[in-house]
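User: Can you predict the 3D structure for this chain?
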Amino acid sequence: MTRSGTSPEMRYFGREGMAARYAASRPPVHAEVLRAALPEDLAPRAALDAGCGTGHSTAPLAAWSDAVFGCDASTVMLAQACSRVPTARFAAARAEALPFAAGCFELVTTCMAFHWFDQERFLAEAARVLEPGGLLVAYNLVFPGRLVGDAAFSRWFGGVYLERFPTPDRDRTSLGRRLSKGGGMLCFERRVDVELQVDFTARGLRDYLTSQSNVEAALRAGARIEEVDAWLDGELAAFFDGAAARAFAYEGRAELARRVS
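Assistant: Here is the predicted structure, written as structure tokens:
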């Protein structure tokens, strides 16, 4: 099913330490979003997770398909994915140049990655590897910076954290908007929003925040992870105040498109 060729490391999360932290700290809520988004009768023979990262988004696909594949440009992220989902098959490749034959998947998903892709090239590749009638699901998991029952955290998140670690540039065009421009073999179907809640310990939230591209951008600019950890430990302590864990709002946003005949 695969074609030859590999791709260089991703711009983000190419370091072993950051990949391991990403793997350990990301909330495993992907299955909840997929259950809300995918048709109940979906039973693909083969499913692909494009831009699979450390495999959090790959693992849930086993509930729908026995043949699960993942690809990512970062080999250090893939090393984590192989450990997390040993039954899946992985390839080092960019989503814009998928190493798979035409029409071999009935489901292609991508999580937290569409905004990093060359979207037009990826959509052409997704359409190519999907069989007619196959489904593409692009979804994001969003941490909106809301601590349940404590408005002060939102003020800190927006006014302190994001000021110190601003969000790096990305293509914010949604799947629906991209496909509304016409052309290609994919037809937009719908968007599904899922409200979630995640419990974080103070250490877990610190590690989660340092797994975001905001902090990765700062590290590439010369910041030291030890300094970032120490700053976050000091900032977050007041919001936990001895509590083992606190509940935070979390969101899933999925968009679906279908490969036309």
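The beta strands are 46-50, 67-72, 89-92, 105-111, 130-142, 186-200, 246-259. The CA atoms of residues 199 and 247 lie 4 Å apart.
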